[in-house]
Amino acid sequence: MNADILNQARAAYRAGDFAGAAQMFSAAKEPGEQAGEADHLRGNSLMRLGRFDEAARAYGEALSDTAYGKSGALLTNQGKAYAAAGDLEAARTSFTRALRDTSYPTPYKAQIGLGEVLLQMGDATEAGVAFRQAAIDSSNPAPAAALASLGSCFILLGRPADAVESFRAASDFAGPVDDARAFSAGLGQAYAAMGKASEAVDAFNRATADGIYRLTPEQQRALEGAKEALASRRPMSTQPGPGVDPLDPLGQSGAFMPDPSDTGFFTLTESEMLQQDRQDQKVRRRRRHTGLKIFLALILILLLAAGGVAFAFTRGFGIPSQQETLTHLFNAVTDGTDTDPYLATGLTEDARGVIVSTVPVGATPVIEGMDQSMTQSTATVNVTLSKGGTQTYEVGFVRQGLGWVISNITIHFGSSDVVASPSGTAKDTTGAATGTTGSATDTGSAGSSDAE
């Protein structure tokens, strides 16, 4: 491996010169050499350039370097590349293989990719299973999109009542990066399929209230049908279900019901739901929305009622905690996913970019010490780099809601530090601006990308 060319490739990657980075990552390798990091980042660069077939091959070469590891992330990226190139069968194989990597920290990404591919292949049932798994995965910080996709699967399967519950759950979990209007539109389509014209029109109106969101052709037809039903005061025709429900082929047949592990849909709550009054929507929603996040939310409500959280809040307790937020940020940089949920909302785009570029790819952060108050915390963080070795960081957190987000990061280099500051520039501790953030560390990594 040519270390000089590899460092130049990393610098080009961080600077957004993906064409140059792809060439240099390839040139840094000796003939026949296995170099997982170089091929991984070359694949990411090619994805950014829209060269999806080449990206899939690059990820395949990275997978051949067994010492590099990260097979789950590499296979998920390869699945995305194959899907973008139109090879859905190869994409399904890659996503399925990614889910076999028990060390993969974010399997929900492979589940979402698999669900999208299966939908394109016309298999709504298995797609729904994948989206459900992504939604209840405890590593998924934003399950709303997966829940909405699950709702779309239920509509295709002729199960509009279940679709309503899925879209409602998506709205409950909607975050700043989610389009709540799309969830309302999906809810409107589900209500229309149930024959509930008034509820459908209300949901569609919420989706289009700002004049920006545009309904799909199917949703527009559903809206027009609901309006016609209201105008004529006649019942809407409901969406016919399939001749055989693929999730309950023998109907209400007791022992002949398929095993929950075979269906995949709402296996955590199916028995409870069968015992509930179908008309009690509030209870049904609570029962359906199980999973770790719901459990934590209910525990939090109980603690608030008892006054325990008020005390913990003043002592710096938060959901997510400082360690959880920091780990999610490092994972997002490594995976090339959205980092905004973990950064303070008041930061400029430049400041966010500096913080992200300061985080090394593939590194693992552990908070060693913390000076915390109710609204601010400063943590000393020990970071284990992907190529071995450690680096010390100082990370600033601020309270945002009940949890913590990151406001700045400082890398310790002995006599001077590089700081990712709110101004959007990197500064050393003497105040002099520096043009590199993170490149001074031998991280063996290169910032973030859309791919993992």
Automatic annotation (TrEMBL):
<keyword id="KW-1133">Transmembrane helix</keyword>
<feature type="region of interest" description="Disordered">
    <location>
        <begin position="420"/>
        <end position="452"/>
    </location>
</feature>
<feature type="region of interest" description="Disordered">
    <location>
        <begin position="228"/>
        <end position="256"/>
    </location>
</feature>
<feature type="transmembrane region" description="Helical">
    <location>
        <begin position="294"/>
        <end position="313"/>
    </location>
</feature>
<keyword id="KW-0812">Transmembrane</keyword>
<protein>
    <submittedName>
        <fullName>Tetratricopeptide repeat protein</fullName>
    </submittedName>
</protein>
<dbReference type="InterPro" id="IPR051012">
    <property type="entry name" value="CellSynth/LPSAsmb/PSIAsmb"/>
</dbReference>
<feature type="compositionally biased region" description="Low complexity">
    <location>
        <begin position="423"/>
        <end position="452"/>
    </location>
</feature>
<dbReference type="InterPro" id="IPR019734">
    <property type="entry name" value="TPR_rpt"/>
</dbReference>
<keyword id="KW-0472">Membrane</keyword>
<keyword id="KW-0677">Repeat</keyword>
<dbReference type="InterPro" id="IPR011990">
    <property type="entry name" value="TPR-like_helical_dom_sf"/>
</dbReference>
<feature type="compositionally biased region" description="Low complexity">
    <location>
        <begin position="240"/>
        <end position="251"/>
    </location>
</feature>
<keyword id="KW-0802">TPR repeat</keyword>
<dbReference type="Pfam" id="PF13432">
    <property type="entry name" value="TPR_16"/>
</dbReference>
